[in-house]
Amino acid sequence: MYKILLSILLFSTVALAHEEKPSYYDDDGNLVVTLHIHGLRTASDQQHKTYSYDVVNPENLNESTSLNIVTSGPKNQLSSTFTRGTDSDHTLITLNGIGIKDRSTTGGTDDIGQHGTLGTCAIEIIKGPMGTVYGAEAIGGVINMKTCASDENSISLDYGSHNTWNKTIKLGTFLEEQKTILDFRIEDETSDGISVYPQGAEKDPYDNRSYFLNTETTLDNGYTLGTIFIDKQNDSSLDNSGSDNLAYTSEWNFKNQQINYFDKDTHFTFNNSDHKRSYLKSGDTDLYESNVKTFHVDNTKSVNDNLSFTSGFDHEITDVNFNTNIGAYVPSVNKKSHLHGYSGTIDYLINDTFLTYGIRYDDQSRFGSFTNHRYGFEHNGIRGSISTGHKAPTLYEMYGTNGYGFSGNENAKPEESKSYEIGYKKHFKETNLKSIDIAIFQIDIENLLDYQDNTIKNISGKSTRHGAEMGLTYDINNFIIKNNTSWIVSEGSNGTTLRRKPKWINNTSIYTEYKGYNLTSNINYYGEHLDVDSVTYATIPKSEVTTVDFGVSKYIGDYLIYSKLNNAFDEDYERPDGYNQDGRNFNFGIKKSF
Fold it and tell me: Which CATH number is 49's domain given?
């Protein structure tokens, strides 16, 4: 298998670059600036028809079916992402298709809530295992943050409840002679916050600072050279689980450098991702650091209009170091690992039916090799797939220790998944119903990793997550109504219902325009579910919660004026148990483009 995939890779990457020179002016002599959006890492422009995905505004992640993000308190606290009822470490977060894996946690769970949206123009949410393309951690799905450089210039100022201020500056330009777009952004957000502990007397403030630089240069050989530099630091005050704490803070720092060299068929990418978490409690400090370097190349070779091959290669180096001394927990690990991934995909269109097959072979220095497969089809909007995935044990789970007697298991095996999906997607023109997207799915997971007897063990048996999701879009008298519903049953290998995973989640978004005002409303329903009592740690039931948000915005010349009222009916709830959530709150702001 190793030699076959390597041969495909070498064969495919000799495809010639396009010889046509890019044009920078249209027929009327107007300057044309092309914005490159790095798309899904799949073999062709058609393969996305065979799986479920959404493309959403970075501020509206809740508008995707089967995506459940739980933040342990208000904004800036830790968050967990559950896709299609899978676990919090089963969703891979990527930047332009490259994993920005956070190994600065014991379970290797990345935190989408900490990353923010500065520089992100759209977010792609791919649901279901995509191990044949992205490798490990994509059992539940992939959240892909897409960047796109622009020459827009703007400045914005936003004020909201709890003395929350957000200041953003964006500077962009197009250097015509160098055929280069420069895009630089700075964002600073501060807030007095609320108490994370529901009965707490002390507010828990936060301070976020972000820097983003994106360049794209169109070269004479038809390729584009892009660079992305990100530096983000979030400082937050924390509370204990089940009690207030007046001397507990955290710093989360994310630095990422990405270089892309690509045309429409071939992509070369190098990504360097640094995560650093620091916790200060009563004078003691915990430090969690991880670095992941990734080199990626993929190439698509079209035999004809109906048949194409894509091959890919990834080399990944992971370095993890924990240095901790708060309390008795004191987890520790200092290890490196290497991974080589080889992938190949065949796409074939025959008589209006699209067929795809993908395979990926991963060779990981710590636990050995793993192979994933994916079969998919699409015909007149009907899609189906069978796909596999895996989640690798983290270096901490294999080699770590802590003050409570935990010792890692060097023989831990990857978690394995198999997913089945059937769906239907269609767009309409002449009716009020504009689009429908339905899917029925099941994900079976074996060898789940669990903490037992002071170590990590693979659990026998099969854990099943199955359900259905439906997205509808209506246009009724200039009202755009989007409704996304998910029904998911998540069960452990012993048949018990899993915690923090409601069966029903629904989001309804309404948009309209009236006399130049853009009006929005969101109704968010979060169903009954099981949770963990923050004091006794017993399993407890939690009630359903419905929150409603309203927003309004209007352009006045080069100024955008906007305001939003969140949780308009002041619902009082904790999610998860013992972690306070915002009541009724507002923000308003102004943005000037120049």
Answer: 2.40.170.20
